[in-house]
Amino acid sequence: MAGSQRLPLHTQRLMPRAGINRAFALLYSCAILALLYHHFIDLLQSTSMVPIFLLLADSILAFMWVTTQAFRMYPTHRQVFIEHLEHYVKESDYPGLDVFICTADPYKEPPMGVVNTALSVMAYDYPIEKLSVYVSDDGGSKLTLFAFMEAARFAAHWLPYCRKNKVVERCPKAHFGSSNPSRFPETDQIKTMYESMRVRVENVIKRGSISHDYITKQGESEALSRWTDGFTPQNHPSVVQVLLENGKDNDATGHGMPNLVYISREKSTDSPHHFKAGALNVLLRVSATMTNAPVILTLDSDMYSNDPQTPLRALCYLLDPSMDPKLGYVQFPQVFHGINKNDIYGGELRHVFEVHMPGMDWLAGPIHAGSGGFFRRRVFYGCPSETLEMNQGRQVSHSIKSREVLEMAHHVAGCKYENQTKWGRKMGFRYGSLVEDLYTSCLLQCEGWKSIYCNPKRPAFLGKSPINLHDFLNQTMRWSVGLLEVAFSRYSPITFGVQSISLLSGLCFAHYTFWPIWAIPVTIYAFLPQLALLNSASIFPKISDPWCWLYVVLFLGAYGQDYLEFVLSGRPTQRWWNHQRAWMMRVLSSFTFGLVEFLLKYVGISTFGFNVTSKVVEEEQRKRYQKGIFEFGVPSPVFLPLTTAAIINLVAFLSGFAQACRQRSIEDVFLQMCLAGFAVVNCCPVYEAMAWRRDQGKLPLKITVISVVLAWALYSASSMAF
């Protein structure tokens, strides 16, 4: 092993833009302080409420800008060398790997998508005897179990096909649907088998029942018989079904297969189930009774593996003896396929995975993104210095189908098991927020654990992003409520972890948890200057006033930095424009509703339920999306802030233009005209959906009418105020 010191498993370097970011932050900070000083002087000299609103808006913008800079101080790039791994550990000594896949609704998350995800990780370039896949079905659907019975049969042919031909794209749907598919002697035969499986599963989903002709084994009939008349998604006993067992089940060539286990935890209407965090904790306990692998991978139902060597990349960090022993997990980015050319909804989440994650990597490490995280099992049982429970990482040697193992697995999957325990508070994934991934990873870092960001050139995982505006905004609204739950929870990282994290890490956490307060300044600037313009009132400095140009400098500075980061990463300008517009839409709609929903919940008036983002897409909707056409379609309240702002800004811009023509000068209303004009250009898809479109994705007339009434009400109220 002497050569191992000369052959590093990975490297780390600071990105060149770090120095530029720091210099820009210093100059921009001076401009922000000057603006706040100007607002403070105006506040002392004015009797109007306008300076108060402007000071509030710019103070929040300044706070959020400062937290954003924490990500830009130490942007980090890492590289791994899988070929050096053999110098550190033999393949037979690789740690066991348990993969957790969560699904919750067979109609919003089609089982074939979950099956493709499972098959892609079952085909990893990893010792079969050390690999186990656990599927959590929180919808408690026998249709999902049937789909995985079919998957287990197909895996017997798919795994040796991938192994023999060294297939890289090991998600069957992606492999066979590729525009330039690889061709091997068995390809047509395997594709026919896959299509046969897909048709059977989709027929079962469509009918809602399973034909007896599809049941080929006695054990399958017994497993499905547990779904009796009293079995409902909200009230049912635990179901643990071992579909494949390593050492017992072989593929078509006689080689062993990884373990595949289906789990539907016990549900009861009188017991809290804690959404996805509760499902993951059940997977933690059930897997501990069966395989107890020291490494765990968490995946969303649609986030399939795109690189069969991904586990080896994670091992380059987890098995490196020079790494900090407090390393708790390795996070891979979420990359989304099927996004249209210009990404009209900003679905690739570029800021999170290309700015935030690399920026946190130099600090305590990135947050967990809900999917694509390789965890040491022991991080879920306490701080690095504590004595760990349950013999973490000790491989279980008995059969996972034995009576004792299955009895224990059903027991730990029970809804009463966690009562009077530390689960959800000090152990496992943490309860108390709809964004259990961020909450858990923040608290793990506060306890002393660290993380690594691994972003290889070939994406490790590919998933789906919403392709209609309603799902996109609803998903963001759910995140907003969850983030505020983290910020104001009893174990908030902002207060609970002050002594154990750095200042920059604390600012990063603050940026995430207070994301929804963006809604306050954006709403103020989307309505207040425009309503003033409609009432012929000037609230900003005149164009001849030097303070006017400070606003221009701050606006262009912030947008200019974002634009340069975007285009230098190789993306087109049109995509950047769409991203900033999508961000404004999310802030104005999702963050506003999320903030209101959280406040109502906080005072006990309302509660927010977890809604699974639908992965089902209609063909016509898909065609419109690929053409770059916004999808409204449903009369949802989440569109009201967007449409109301679009109407007010358009009328205000036209009114300001008329005033400027009459006075032959825009001296007094230059900044207000610029704001209104900027909003009007951003709202072009809204105007199109309101007035010109006739397809099913147009804006419903009901929303347009309500928006006009709201705009008139705001104008009437502002007339009295101004």
UniProtKB/TrEMBL annotation:
InterPro entries: Cellulose_synth, Nucleotide-diphossugar_trans. One of its GO terms (cellular component) is membrane. UDP-alpha-D-glucose binds at K108, E109, D138. SUPFAM superfamilies: Nucleotide-diphospho-sugar transferases (SSF53448). It comes from the Eukaryota. It is a multi-pass membrane protein. GO terms for biological process: cell wall organization; cellulose biosynthetic process. Mn(2+) binds at K276, D300. It is found in: Endomembrane system. The active site is at D138, D437. Keywords: Cell wall biogenesis/degradation, Glycosyltransferase, Membrane, Transferase, Transmembrane, Transmembrane helix. GO terms for molecular function: cellulose synthase (UDP-forming) activity. The chain crosses the membrane at residues 20-40, 518-540, 547-568, 588-612, 632-657, 669-687, 699-717. This is Cellulose synthase-like protein G3.
